[in-house]
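Example (one chain per record):
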Amino acid sequence: MVELRGVRKSYGDLEVLKGIDLTVARGEVVAVIGPSGGGKSTLLRCVNLLEPISAGQVLLEGEDLTRPGVDLNRVRRHIGMVFQQFNLFPHLTALDNLTLAPRKLLRMPRAEAEERARALLERVGLADRAGAHPRQLSGGQQQRVAIARALMMDPHVMLFDEVTSALDPELVSEVLDVMRDLARAGMTMLCVTHEMGFARELGDRLVFVDGGLVTEQGPPAEVLDEPRHERTRQFLRKVLR
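Predicted structure:
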């Protein structure tokens, strides 16, 4: 589904990604962990070229997104992304947040868009909040609306960038429940996360990124319980206390 080949990303003299090689199979859930500043979020944003890469290739379903002439707007319709901050339009209701993109970009009729949006709001447990504005929703509810909004475009892969880190602890579980539902339904997912329990439970593979490189990867239980590299062991000693 997704393949990164030798991906590098620099900001001036600062090289953030130093040659990332990573594949994500169709239906696979890959959890990405690592220290702050290690390149995790940049890696995620390079998948759909929200951050233009400095070198290497990014492929989606075999199509090279870095090839000259590629219609990135067309490709991005197949990639759903949910950010740490919810990024909802504050002046729109939950329903309108969901229907805006398919109506404007896909020319979907309003009735069809609203029917699909209501079904997705029900899927994330917010059927009764369709008419609410973001300020009327809790952080967990806003993030669930953001997930539903990403699903409106019928993506082939979902990217999650620390989607629970801005939430109060008691709201984290409701967002993780939605992600569990997506994983069990077979959605391809690449998740930057600090929720080790979620990574262990639903991740097919755990990838440790540090210093702009993939330094270790494998089955979650194997990486979390018996890490091979000292840097991974140091990180896990801090986060698994």
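Caption: DSSP finds nine helices and ten strands in the chain.
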